[in-house]
Amino acid sequence: xxxxxxxxxxxxKYKLLWVDPACKIEVPExxxxxxxxxxxxxxxxxxxxxxxxxxxxxxxxLVHSEEYLEAVKQTPHMTLxxxxxxxxxxxxxxxxPNIYHCAKLAVGSALQLVDSVLMGKVKNGMALVRxxxxxxxxxxxxxxxxxxxxAIAAQYAKQKYGVxxxxxxxxxxxxxxxxxxxxxxxxxxxYFSWHRYEHQKFWPNLKDSDYDIVGKGEGxxxxxxVPWNKVGMxxxxxxxxxxxxxxxxxxxxxxxxxxxxxxxxxxxxxxEGEMCATPDIFAHLTYLLxxxxxxxxxxxxxxxxxxxxxxxxxxxxxxxxxxxxxxxxTNLTGPCRSTLESLQCVRAAHRQHWSCLRHAVDxxxxxxxxxxxxxxxxxxKDEAEVWEEQKSxxxxxxxxxxxxxxxRVCSAVVLPDGVVCPDAxxxxxxxxxLGPHLLTLKKDFLKDADDSAVTALSRVFSLxxxxxxxxxxxxxxxxxDAAMTMTCVVQHVAAEVDxxxxxxxxxxxxxxxxxxxxxxxLVVQISGEDTEEQGSKYYVPVCLKKGCTDTxxxxxxxxSLLLPLGYQHNPSLVLLVRMxxxxxxxxxxxxxxxxxxxxxxxxxxxxxxxxxxACVGPTASILLGNPAPPLGQLPASLKEDAEAVERLxxxxxxxxxxxxxxxxxxx
Length: 667
Ligand SMILES: CC(O)(O)NCCCCNCCCN
Ligand SMILES: [Zn+2]
Description:
The protein is α/β, with parallel strands linked by helices. It has 19 helices and 16 strands. The protein has an 8-stranded parallel sheet, sandwiched between helices. Strands 10-9-11-16-15-12-13-14 form an 8-stranded parallel sheet, with helices on both faces. The protein is globular and about 90 Å long.
């Protein structure tokens, strides 16, 4: 199934007709440069382009009042003076004779997108629309918005398709108060928004946008506000909020549909947001949401006023929806103090509503500052970087997002004769000769192994070499001895100069100490074995009371440990090993396999032991880019497990700052 793209140049045919400094940034070019960039990058050709349609009254009335709709209906016939007069009753928005038509097309586009996803015609999609929607309220236009496109889409999905739970993620830099008000007492719609706030000093200056506004009545807990009280937030800050707030709660909520208020004024260069996150961050934010709701994700454009970063961010988002490998995120320094303060406040405010936060350790709050947490060796930022930070936003410069090339082959497999190769996978030919290095390895490691083990290892090494040359994206091997193969692979890869391995080992098994000595391999082992081994900076033993069968504990370790560590380690290869008898359930295994593709441009090598042959199919399905099935609504994890994860975090966060979620200052 493909990715839908909805766009029509009719929505560019309205603009500001008088002087209004607050509205002059909302220009038709926002749509033309975004669509133009998609065309130029060959992305429109790869999408399923769906036609727009006008929303009908009944659809608009799902959210708005009749008197408001009737009033907006009069605008096409108004004179310029009448339009100005009409506009005065609302805030930071303007009307135009054609804006009612475009507003109906914007709603219609969102509904077309929801239809195509929920009818299973496409996997996911994006609607490039204007006017935006998330500020408009039941009886009021606001913040360039006329009708609330995404709120209407959510009500539409519930009414027409009986969707039970909908997650709305609003990564626009402004608070979508219109969406919040629409669903604040509705437990079937979880609304998440981060937004520039500066302690209510930033527009729309609402107390309702603060972290302690969590929803009302039945809806308590289903409204998450993350205020940015400082500008200059970076990729690390955004990822921290996803890892420590949004993803744990979203997985617990287990939505049937994900809607994104995709505003890109949260990207670097935008004068509204004044943030420093780069366009490629949206590739990751999109991907991290794609394993919810079995990939049913509809992104609808909201804001974004720097035409360069807007176009790049839109392309990054659509490329991820299309399944392209994710770009590496470099120099993630960890969240700033102000972010930690917000994180801690939001987690505390929601602790009573979400069991994933029940055991969250929250420390006394502390003064706010944007002093960046320095991880070791970051102390002396060179002059240029410091100067860079002090430049004013409009002069911000940032590198073009890296090219994201999909290898010719997605998944290659090494399987013993007699094991069927999963559809769409490529079996590595068995005619590989034993390379010279293998003969030495045979001497060092495999001296007593039989020839089939040596042959299998030689094929696994050629899998790795093909990944290194980007001939294949990922690989899977079913081997006789997973632990031994794992050790040889780490040894083989670590020998290369700029290689870094992220080894994720599921289940019990001994990790030889020497593989973590060089600091190039980071090991996370999730098992049920209480290793007295305290671990080190590069060896993170997560032992779950009930072992890997405990989905909640496993999921918590995935979000609050694995993701932050993986991002900060920024590996060139992910090695995922399923030890025999791990007890991990297939769906959890698939979710883990999917999430790990956030790293190393998707270069994941999965090692399975022969008696786990039944896992080949489900694993291959994920490696081929299919979404992982839902885990179901997650119960609370065991207190001991949550405390174990917290202990690990506090031990490791001095070295790995992305683990920070509360206010500890690093040493
Ligand atoms: C969709 C949206 O969230 O991007 N709308 C933003 C509205 C901003 C209103 N204030 C403008 C002040 C100009 N400096
Ligand atoms: Zn915005």
